Amino acid sequence: MSGEGHAHLSPSPAEGATVISLAERMRARRESAPAAPARSLPAPQTPTHRGVRARVAAVTDTCWCCRQKVRAVVGAIVDPALTADGSGFLALEQIDEALLRQLDPRTLVRRGIGELRHRESPGVEGGYVANGCPHCDALIGRFRIEDLLTDHRMAGGSFGQLDSGIIVELEAEPVERRAPLVVHG
């Protein structure tokens, strides 16, 4: 950057861009999140149906390590009447344990999605459930997939466009989250 009076924060990817810290980014996400209270999915309507039918939602990207095309699970799409905000979208962190139990890695890889499993992360204490690249197994991190989902929605994309073609059955009343996200930095 040239010009007087400009503070140089750090090298930026584009002229005029600002680099923010992870802590600032997480604070902005918390402040922009809807304040609606969490709500369990209602009990199924028929006695023979034990769960809620959901379609696995995935975003597409390029692997940071091997540069191959990858897809990553971001959550699931359900009947909008079953979500507190009416969007019909359940984020991965809300249903990750259920997906781990149901998704076969071979089914995922046939759709260009790497294995979903618990992975360690230097930025998240205790790690979290995330995808890896189906080609090199590099972590496709939570913050990256959240950014891709946000970009998709900001560009006018719908949750339905993220349908991976994989159907799962979720429990009628999901188990509460294990632990809150702890960010270091």
Task: Give a short summary of the structure.
This protein is an alpha+beta fold and 185 residues long.
Give a verbal description of the structure.
This protein is an alpha+beta fold and 185 residues long. Residues 1-14, 35-49 and 174-185 have low confidence and may be disordered. A hairpin with a 2-residue loop joins strand 4 (116-121) and strand 5. The protein has four helices and seven strands; from the N terminus they run αβββααβββαβ. It has a four-stranded antiparallel β-sheet with strand order 3-2-1-7. Strands 4-5-6 form a three-stranded antiparallel β-sheet.
Taking Cα atoms only, what radius of gyration do you get, to the nearest Å? Answer: 18 Å
Q: Which ranges are low-confidence, i.e. pLDDT below 50, for 5 or more consecutive residues?
A: 1-14, 35-49, 174-185
What oligomeric arrangement do these chains adopt? Answer: single chain
Helix content: 10-25%
Largest sheet: 4 strands, antiparallel
Strand content: 25-35%
Order of neighbouring strands in the sheet with most strands: 3-2-1-7
Give the SSE string: HEEEHHEEEHE
**Overall average residue pLDDT:** 76
Number of strands: 7
- Give me the number of helical elements: 4
Q: Which class do the helix and strand fractions yield?
A: alpha+beta
Q: Alpha-carbon distance between the termini? A: 26 Å
Shape: globular
